[in-house]
Structure formats: C-alpha cells, structure tokens
Amino acid sequence: MTTLSAPPTAPEADGRDHTALLASLREAIGAAHVVTDAQDMAARLVEDRGLRQGTALALLRPGSTEEVATCLRLCKAAKVPVTPQGGNTGLAGGGVPDGGIILTTDRLNRIRQVDPTNATITVEAGCILANIQAAADAVDALFPLSLASEGSCQIGGNLSTNAGGTAVLRYGNARDLVLGIEAVLPDGRVLNDLNGLRKNNTGFDLKNLFIGAEGTLGIITAAVLKLFPKPSARATALVACTGPDPALALYARMRGQTADTLSTFEYVERLGLEMVIDHTPGCSDPMSEAHPAYCLIELTGNGAQADLDTRLEGALEAAFEADQIVDAVIGASEAQKDALWALRENLSEAQKHEGASIKHDVSVPVSRVADFIKVATQACMDHMPGLRPCPFGHFGDGNLHFNLTRPVDMADADFLAEYGAFNRIVHDIVHEMGGSFSAEHGIGTFKRAELRRYKDPVALELMAQIKATLDPDDLMNPGKVL
Questions:
Q1: Spans of the chain, pLDDT less than 50
Q2: Among 56, 97, 190, 312, which lies 20 to 30 A Cα-Cα from 45?
Q3: Angle 65-77/19-29 helices, nearest 10 degrees?
Q4: Where does residue 9 rank: exposed (0-12), middle (13-18), buried (19+ CB within 10 A)?
C-alpha cells in the first residue's frame, strides 16, 4: 500500500454507452448536478490519505430524498453501480468508486427539526457534524458525537461507518445515538423510519441494517438523533504514568470514584506527545519532565464546577498514593483545558510529519488494553528493530489507534511494503484477545481480507444473504465490506 499518483485525466467507462442514462439523470436532478468533467471529480476519486484512487463515470449531487430515489432507480435500470459518498473523510477506502456513479449527499444538508422537549434533532445525511453540534448547542443541548474530522465529515457517512470518537465512553457509538432513519434502497424505494421514539417494539430494528453497512445496502438520507443535556461544567486533567498497566488501574479508579461524570479517558505515549509538541504551533509540554505515558481525563456534568473539581482532585490524590500516576496538570481555565485537549486532538495530523505510518484501528476488552499494548508493541519491534510504535486513543472504551511510525532511517515505500506483515501480527493478537480489527473506521476495501479471516463464518453468510436480498445486482458500493 503506497501513496498514489495524481487522479486520471478522464473518467473510466465500462465499454457501454451511458448517454441515455446521463441524459435521464440530468433531467431528474438538473444538468449542473451531474458532473462528468474529470478535473471536477478528481478530489472525489481519491481516499482521504491518498492510499487509494478510483474512477467514475459521473458524480451526482441530488438535492432531496426523492431525487436520490430517482437516481437509484435509473442506475438500477441501467445496471450501473453507485458509490455513496459524504464528506470523503473515511479511512478504509469505503467511499472510493470503482467505476460507475458517485452519489454525494452534499446538498442534503437541512436540519429538518429540533425538538428540545423530546431531546431529538432530525437531520439530512449531508449535514456537517459540526453544524449538528452547533444546532444542538443553540437549544442548550448536546449532540455528543465528536471526531477529528467533524468540521468536514457528514452525518450520513458517520452513521454508515458507525463512527466512534472521543465521547463513546459516556454516550456510545453513532449507532447508540440514532432513534430513526430514512433510507433509499437500491431499487429506489424509500424506507421511512424517521421516528423519535425511545420505545418502539414493532418488529425488526431495520435502522441497524444501514448503520455500519457503509452504503452497501442503500443510502441513508436522514436520521433522528438523540440529544442530551448540555454539560454546564467540566474538569480536565493530563496525567502522567509509567505505562499502560498503571493507566488501566487509574481508569478503574476513575470509573469507581467519578461514576457517570467520566466522559473522556484517552491514552497517549511519549512519542505521540512529542510529535504534537514538535509539529503543532502553540502546543507545549505542560509538565517539567518527560514521562512514558499520559492520560487525558475529563469529567462533565451539570452540577457546580467545584463538585467536579473535587471529584477529579480526590481521585488523582488517591492515584498518587497508590503509585498509579507520577504527575498531573489540571486545567484551571477553559483555555488551559482546551490546551490539554489540543495535545490529543492534533496527534493524527502531527504524526504525518514523521514519515509513513501503518495504522491499526483496533479494540479489545478494556481489561486487556494494557496487555495488548505491551504484547503488540514487542511483537512489532521484534519484526522491525528501530520501529517507532505510537499507540493512542480511546483507552476507556477499549479502542486504540495502534499506529506504527517508520524507523528514522527507512524510506516510506520500503516501510509501507510491510503493511500486510504488520496487519497479520497486530490483528492476530487482537483476535486472540477477543477483540476487533476494526473498531470505528469500518471495512471498506482495505480490510475485506481481514473480515474473511477473522469474522464468524455464519455471520459472513448472513451478511451476504442480506446483501443479496436488498441488492441482488450488487450495485450499491460494490466491492466494499464483503
């Protein structure tokens, strides 16, 4: 897996004459929203990190659910595949087309309804995540899904990949934040399940067929999302410890002493912190000495700030006495709290400056997180001396981004040639510990072989049967997931 060249100068054709299809699509949604120029489509053909490049006949920009349905009916009749695409921020290649049509939800960007009393917000699939957060904030509520790409990713893509983020510990994955959806099936029929009910026991929970399916079963066009009370206070700390074992002990302590106010428990090792400090303007080490590992901890709530501060300080004092931590910095102001968060939020971007990296998005039971970090780090370094492991992520929900940065003196291409070998090492360890090789990024094309290797055969068979029932012609995002 290597960095790819520039996009092609012309869209790929499948040898058939699609003049009639394109004319029908232009009539259905307007000629301005059927894009066929190669340069205008170029950015939509490349995966976010440049690891995979596709081809397409055209890019469609429908402006309503009805227009999406019409597009899918026309494409099905012409036997032309469709790749749904939101903000194109995915990390598994799921939004890269292999010919056919790209259908983007950019114009489906209305917030249809905000119901503070029912604690719901109904949004279209093309809504930018940050805009949904802002709409919730405007009614003094919280939509808790939060990702590094929230300024550009779209909620349809978030749901299609069952996105995670930094708030899963308290609020759950994207799947846990959805009450109802609207989706267009591959044949153009519209599933209208936009209910805002907490209790609705009327048969199969159909929305969960589409959440996490990466557009292979249809296109989510709208969703009813849960809102939560907006926290009025937060207490934030960056804590230093000697490694993953004391970090796990600290997590157990924080859960016990702070209960449901604990909303964040992120883990970063020293190499990752140094990358942020070295490559992110305005970021500096808040501690006077370097330490092997750090935990970013945040409590949120609606009580008095002093109560959260007291809880946090009390838990950390007990952790000091138990030798679980060696230093701590507590944010005294909102600016200081934001500065501590910046040390975590800028890590993925800062890592790019250190050369090629091989990334793993894995999860294990929380009780095994420390064991995984130690075992996987040693196994990878045994395979390649000089390797710079950089594990970080959502320690509190068992999800780690086990990223491997190339040795200082190694060429990027030579390092990336080891992608398969490192995948096998890391994912075999994850599997042995009862974990998942894909925690929050999805399968796409990058992890299809891993799915076949590790997924239960009966589960794979059921997935294939569902796909064949809803999409017998394999036109919806073909080649992805299965």
A1: 1-12
A2: 190
A3: 170
A4: exposed
- Beta-strand pair 327-330/357-358: unpaired
- What pLDDT score was predicted for residue 15? 76
**If you write DSSP's letter for every residue of 463-478 in order, what string do you get?**
HHHHHHHH-TT--BST
Neighbour count for residue 77 (Cβ, 10 Å): 12
Report the C-alpha gap between 97 and 223 in whole angstroms: 25
pLDDT of residue 89: 85
Which residue, 236, 213, 116, 222, is CA-closest to 166? 236
Phi, psi of 357 (to 5 degrees): -135, 150
82-85 and 361-363 as β-strands: parallel, antiparallel, unpaired?
A: unpaired
Distances (CA, A) of 448 to 216, 422, 455, 466: 13, 16, 10, 17
Amino acid 292 reads P
Instruction: End-to-end CA distance of the chain: give it in Å, rounded.
Output: 20
- Give, in order, the Cα–Cα distances in Å from 443 to each of 79, 111, 342, 396: 25, 29, 29, 23
pLDDT of residue 442: 87
What pLDDT shows up at residue 305?
Answer: 67
Strand segments, DSSP code E, in 36-161 are 58-60, 82-85, 101-104, 111-115, 120-124, 141-142
Pairwise CA distance, residues 86 & 98, whole Å: 16
pLDDT at residue 306, as a whole number: 67
Reference 362, options 418, 409, 431, 448; nearest CA is: 431
Q: Would strands 120-124 and 219-226 be described as parallel, antiparallel, or unpaired?
A: antiparallel
Q: Which two tokens stand for residue 149?
A: 């790409």
Listed in order, strand segments (DSSP E) in 372-450 are: 388-394, 399-405
At 53 the pLDDT is: 85
Q: Which residues pair with 190 in a beta bridge?
A: 184
Closest CA to 294 of 244, 339, 260: 244
List all residues 6 or more positions away from 379 whose beta carbon is below 8 Å from its beta carbon. Answer: 425, 426, 429
Residue 321 has a CB neighbour count (10 Å cut-off) of: 9
Q: Tally Cβ neighbours within 10 Å of residue 137.
A: 12
pTM, 2 dp: 0.90
| 3-state secondary structure at position 377 | helix
What is the C-alpha to C-alpha distance for residues 289 and 77, in angstroms, rounded to an integer? 66
DSSP 272-284: HHHHHHHHSTT--
Quick check: 204 and 193 in contact, CB under 8 A? Answer: no
Q: Please provide the size of the chain in residues.
A: 482
What letter does residue 407 receive in the DSSP assignment?
Answer: P
